[in-house]
Amino acid sequence: MACRALQTDKCHPGLPPTPSAHEAMRRRVDPGQMGKLRPGEVERLAPGHTGRPRPLWNLLLWTLLSCGLGGSAQGPGEWTPWRSWSRCSSSCGRGLSVRSRRCIWFPEEEPCWGDSHEYRLCQLPDCPPGAVPFRDLQCALYNGRPVLGTQEAYRWVPFYGAPNQCDLNCLAEGHAFYHTFGRVLDGTPCSPGTRGLCVAGRCLSAGCDGLLGSDAREDHCGRCGGANDSCLFVQRVFRDAGTFAGYWNVTVIPEGARHIRAAHRSRNHLALMRGDGRYVLNGNWAVSPPGTYEVAGTRVVYTRAAGPEETLHAAGPTSQDLLLQVLLQEPNPGIEFEFWLPRELYGPFQARAQALGWSPRQPQPREVEPQAPESPMAPAAPAAGPPRPLTPAPDPCPPCPDSRGRAHRLLHYCGSDFVFRAQVLGRLRQAQETRYEVRVQLVYKNRSPLRALEYVWAPGRCPCPPLALHREYLLAVQRLVSPDGTQDRLLLPHAGYARPWSPAEDSRVRLAARRCPV
């Protein structure tokens, strides 16, 4: 590649450098002087400098400046490539590393634009307990040395009350004065508990790109230096007034959500549930204390003011779906919620938000029948013989009729005395009926008060639908009182409504409540 002249010649392939340009190059660079510059010093030689030329070096450097970097020689100088990053300034905790470059420019040009040094935050494992802080070490270097023009020596400790926190301000132990020993070393924390580090006498904080003094910040989508164009802002108000007291679904907070906020002003309470059905906040009719809660890979800050105001905040991103609910105790004045979501996740969120439908992910326990204890006088079991193939025992119960569908749900919801969510704790089969012991968790409809523990009766030894032990169900039952008033039972009719609980079924039951005739 041929090069251009210093002033007016253009860069044309195949043309050798003009004598004036070659002579200027010889005056400009002496390789023997290249390594003698201090970091950050611009490399500029006087026009009268007469160094011994090296034609190959001159040719390569001139090609780099004139052709590889392009433009006219009349503009600003050119930077050399960045050198490698230095080692971290600290052996533990936070420190900084630095890299530098040099400016190459001619007498007729302007100096380079930009910085000759860049500083990057480096994070090492935390310092062990009892480690001496970096600033303390620098003050201790002056212990026992005479200062202030006297022969008296002192012991020095850091002093943080001086105006410039990046000066090495040290307090004389046992005395009421401090002395400034110049600047602290680069990489010294500005003050305890802050994120800034001192660089060349200035306190700098790192941007999201890790560079100290950088203005780069993450956008709401989590992209460093982004413009919020890779995500969407979801902001809505839940205004459902509710037809009964209890838990109502507000919205799904999907995996990947950021900058989450929910707030309302009422005596109601926000509730937060994991995807597996376990509550994080204000679940099972118990109010949680304000504070910070770890869930779904983020921290949820729950606040409840003295007045009727309640808020949830979380930075995100969430690592799993969450369900936001409200425990209604009075008419809902409106619940505001918002979050940022990646564009590719918005479509699936819309589908889940409409149906609130994902199946619970907890393992389903198997039902185990109680067995009679072995008698100590029972004969010993015979020695195990060759394994025999297991044949499934015939199911003594016939299949249940199909009871799915909206019409079936609406019929039993509107015609029942009680609708509630319950967990099956026990089961007792008798000759003509089956009795379930259940723990009531959430009441959707009731004609009279329910206790925390109730018995639910179903006709026959093979009730339809059957209820598995330890599972949670939505049940629609009727109250059955004997003519003489001696029996008062909750009856689950044959082929009645008993569905495994899920957020989707919860939402469908609430919709059914609105369609019952008055």
UniProtKB/TrEMBL annotation:
Gene3D superfamilies in the cross-refs: 2.40.50.120, 2.60.120.830, Thrombospondin type-1 (TSP1) repeat
NTR domain sequence ranges: 397-516
Principal location class: secreted
Record's protein name: ADAMTS-like protein 5 isoform X6
Transmembrane regions listed in the UniProt entry: none
Highest rank taxon of the organism: Eukaryota
Keywords in alphabetical order: Disulfide bond, Secreted
Statement: the UniProt record of this protein carries the keyword Repressor: no
Listed Pro residues bias regions: 384-401
Secretion signal span: none
Keyword Secreted tagged: yes
Region listing for Disordered, in residue ranges: 1-49, 358-401
Name of the gene: ADAMTSL5
Stretches with biased composition (Low complexity): 370-383
Pfam families to which the protein is assigned, alphabetical: ADAMTS_CR_3, ADAMTS_spacer1, NTR, TSP_1
Entry-linked PROSITE patterns: NTR, TSP1
Compartment annotation: Secreted
Xref: CDD domains: NTR_like
